[in-house]
């Protein structure tokens, strides 16, 4: 929304299942809609808003929305920046993503991993990582820090417990929990972490912006630098164009022994792409230009721009009335808001 508010002539129509939410002050108008888990009613709500407001472009931002817009794109009477791809599941399920990369000769760019479905399979899988102090466990379709656990032996767990590291789990405790569905074990990578924001249009990358992640808490980037890394940019473009032809994509890598290993794919606008905006690359504007004008705009990144994030807040009066009158966005002091 910060990126959209910087574009002249853009009207932001916000939607959320909650009436009170942190994004509403950035909107010109707002609608409370059904949850994505009530999919049919959610689609009806979006259809109504698109028609009433004559919406030109929809920005789905939730992980769950990506699959809905892929499957039911034809039911929304407006364009959207949801990814154009042959398979969304291939992008949101890391097991599928890694298998697809292996089949296309990119095995050296994925970590060592194995899949499991049951507790018995988990115990066998743990034996394959007996040569490492830590092993990463996660759901194959999780995003952010959801479902993440760092497994270790009892000695490592007790040390982590004394140091207040909450994500470290004794592997015996983890193996005692009933496990169903598909999950994965992955080698623990201790190198430098990077994210790459990119926008694809007609099978080509309009913008590829790497970010070195210096401080991360609960999956949220608090400190980082936009860097010009040609090796990483080239790899990100190869990975991105392998999976999709159009839309925004965030890729996450870990550097190890001079190589970059892919750890996550996010085919949606992620919160940390605000770093790219700070470096002069407005991805929401790129999405608008590509979708409505059919052309990629030129960009001039300010390399080595550093972001340090902090929490902010706004206040409202709880008096039984709508806490967000139409004029609220103008009255609040919001970075990026127009005078």
**Biggest sheet, spatial arrangement of strands:** 14-13-10-11-12-15
Mean pLDDT comes to: 87
The coarse overall form would be globular
Count all strands and give the number. Answer: 15
CATH architecture of the largest domain: 2-Layer Sandwich
N/C terminus separation = 16 Å
* Estimated radius of gyration: 21 Å
The tally of structural domains comes to 3
Q: Please give the share of residues in helix.
A: 25-40%
How many helices does DSSP assign? 12
* CATH topology-level fold name of the largest domain: D-amino Acid Aminotransferase, Chain A, domain 1
Task: List low-pLDDT spans.
Answer: 327-339
| Fourth CATH level, the homologous superfamily of the largest domain | ATP-grasp fold, B domain
Can you tell me the CATH class of the largest domain? Alpha Beta
Outline the biggest β-sheet. 6 strands, antiparallel
H and E string: HEEHEHEHHEHEEHEHEEEEHEEHHEH
Seen as an oligomer or otherwise, the chain set is single chain
Computed structural class: alpha+beta
Strand content: 15-25%
Describe the structure concisely for a colleague.
This protein has 339 residues and is an alpha+beta fold. Helices cover 30% and strands 25% of the residues. It has 3 domains: 81 residues, NAD(P)-binding Rossmann-like Domain (Rossmann fold), CATH 3.40.50.720; 76 residues, Dna Ligase, domain 1 (2-Layer Sandwich), CATH 3.30.1490.20; 118 residues, D-amino Acid Aminotransferase, Chain A, domain 1.
């Amino acid at each position: 929304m910060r990126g959209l508010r910087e574009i002249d002539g853009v009207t932001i129509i916000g939607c959320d299942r909650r009436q009170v939410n942190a994004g509403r002050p950035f909107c010109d108008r707002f609608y409370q809609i059904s949850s994505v888990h009530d999919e049919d009613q959610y689609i009806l709500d979006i259809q109504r808003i698109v028609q009433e407001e004559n919406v030109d472009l929809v920005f789905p931002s939730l992980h769950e929305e990506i699959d809905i817009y892929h499957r039911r794109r034809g039911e929304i009477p407006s364009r959207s920046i949801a990814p154009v791809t042959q398979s969304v599941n291939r992008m949101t399920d890391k097991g599928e993503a890694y298998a697809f990369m292996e089949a296309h000769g990119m095995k050296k760019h994925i970590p060592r991993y194995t899949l499991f479905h049951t507790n018995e399979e988990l115990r066998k899988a743990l034996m394959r990582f007996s040569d490492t102090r830590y092993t990463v466990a996660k759901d194959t379709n999780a995003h952010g820090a959801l479902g993440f656990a760092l497994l270790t032996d009892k000695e490592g767990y007790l040390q982590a417990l004394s140091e207040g590291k909450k994500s470290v789990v004794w592997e015996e405790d983890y193996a005692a929990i009933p496990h169903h569905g598909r999950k994965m074990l992955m080698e623990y990578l201790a190198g430098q972490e990077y994210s790459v924001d990119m926008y694809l249009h007609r099978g080509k990358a309009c913008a590829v912006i790497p970010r070195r992640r210096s401080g991360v808490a609960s999956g949220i980037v608090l400190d980082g630098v936009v860097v010009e890394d040609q090796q990483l940019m080239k790899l990100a473009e190869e990975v991105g164009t392998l999976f999709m032809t159009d839309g925004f994509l965030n890729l996450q890598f870990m550097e190890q022994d001079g190589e970059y290993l892919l750890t996550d794919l996010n085919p949606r606008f992620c919160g940390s792409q605000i770093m790219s905006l700070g470096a002069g690359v407005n991805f929401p504007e790129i999405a608008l230009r590509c979708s409505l004008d059919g052309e990629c705009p030129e960009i001039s990144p300010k390399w080595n721009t550093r972001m340090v994030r902090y929490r902010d807040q706004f206040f409202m009066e709880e008096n039984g009335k709508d806490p967000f009158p139409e004029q609220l966005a103008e009255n609040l002091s919001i970075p990026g808001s127009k005078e």
